[in-house]
Protein: G protein-coupled receptor 6
Organism: Columba livia
Amino acid sequence: MFVLVGSLATADLLAGLGLILNFVFQYVIHSETVSLLTVGFLVASFTASVSSLLAITVDRYLSLYNALTYYSERTVLCIHTMLAGAWGVSLCLGLLPVLGWNCLHDHAACSVVRPLTKSNVTLLSASFFLIFLIMLHLYIEICKIVCRHAHQIALQQHFLTASHYVATKKGVSTLAIILGTFGASWLPFAIYCVVGDPDYPSVYTYATLLPATYNSMINPIIYAYRNHEIQRSMWVLFCGCFQAKVSFRSRSPSDV
């Protein structure tokens, strides 16, 4: 779980750095070559961020669906392989503009995200829609598992206690917030990339991309800060002290 959170944090950090570099070389220091590099860096970073979110979703699903075998070496290998594949694909997509899939010499092929071509942006948007549908399906399955577990506990105890009801409701609500935040952040930009016209003012592109950057700002709160182990580590890191009497409970990926 912490490897996946670290991957997400790294991708979001690189995305923020890429935005700064892209702005500098787009409006302050004009250079086509460097502009291609910064755009490719942005594509790779944001793709890695979205892929890490998908990996976290898969990890949460596996922690519930295969609870008995989750803490095995096979799961660790699966997660590491998934992460390596996600970063590998992200790197390849980021290299496409640098390797020639750009519209610097063919302005008719430009998309709303210059210098990316229409086909490149369409590929990225289609990939996002696919990831969003996969995450939606997995979170629906997670909700089913959580509700089924609550029902089984109720049958064993002959009634559903208030604490179990509150925990189940809280878990489902949290999943809805996670998926809703992700969709609200990325859907406007993905849809605009498909239906937008290259002749539209660039401010429209930045306006739809802005919520996606907010997603990278919100991710640490949703996926990291709510974890008690990370809270303890941050307390030690920034305060240089830790009260041993404070109890922290280690959480599994299924604790959403």
Remarks:
- The chain has one domain: 1-239.
- The chain has a mean pLDDT of 80.
